[in-house]
Amino acid sequence: MDESDLRGDLAELPCFNLYLGWRRVQAFYKHFLGEGLNPQRVYVLELLLEHRELGVTQLARALDLDVATMSGLLSRMESEGLVDRPRAKGDRRAVAVKLTRRGRATAKRTEAAVAEADAELTGALDPSDVAALARLVERLGELRR
To answer: Which among 9, 45, 58, 103 has the fewest CB atoms less than 10 Å away?
Structure first.
């Protein structure tokens, strides 16, 4: 029995197909980045490389994660020496997330790999399909709000 027969009615569900698409994206990242870096970690590194310092809530919003999930992700990244979370100046309750020296080096190293993975992934599609996909995903994201 091949995959399409095995999946049966699931293959008709848009959410299942989005799930399969996401799994393929993760496989691309794993191929280009190796073990230990997943898309969420890479996106946190990229955001901090661009903005230098962001709050936990800002990072969570940017990646459409809840604050608890982002806090757990940052704890793991901090234990690996990728980020630092000192208290924000002026508000002892707030945490300002910054890249460590190791995190900055990792972010710069992964930047090219992410661009290469994205180019290969989208290179298999017509530019109008890439634009349509972006619009559809955006519309799906708006349904939840």
So the answer is: 9
Residue 108 lies in a domain: yes
What's the one-letter identity of residue 100? Answer: T
Residue 100 falls inside a structural domain: yes
Beta-bridged to residue 47, according to DSSP, are: none
The DSSP element (H or E) to which 93 belongs, if any, is strand 91-99
What length is written for the chain? 145
If one counts the domains in the chain, the total is 1
CB 86 within 8 A of CB 95: yes
HSE (side-chain half, CA atoms, 13 Å) at 59: 32
Tell me the pLDDT tens digit for each residue of 84-142: 998 767 666 778 999 999 999 999 988 888 888 888 888 888 999 989 988 988 888 78
> Rounded distance, CA 82 to CA 35, Å?
15
Q: Going by C-beta distance under 8 Å and a sequence separation of 6 or more, which residues neighbour residue 88?
A: 55, 94, 95, 96
Residue 61 DSSP code: H
Rounded-to-integer distance, Cα 136 and Cα 142, Å: 10
The residues, any chain, with a CB within 8 Å of residue 29's CB and separated by 6 or more, are: 37, 38, 39, 42, 114, 117
Range of the domain at 121: 11-143
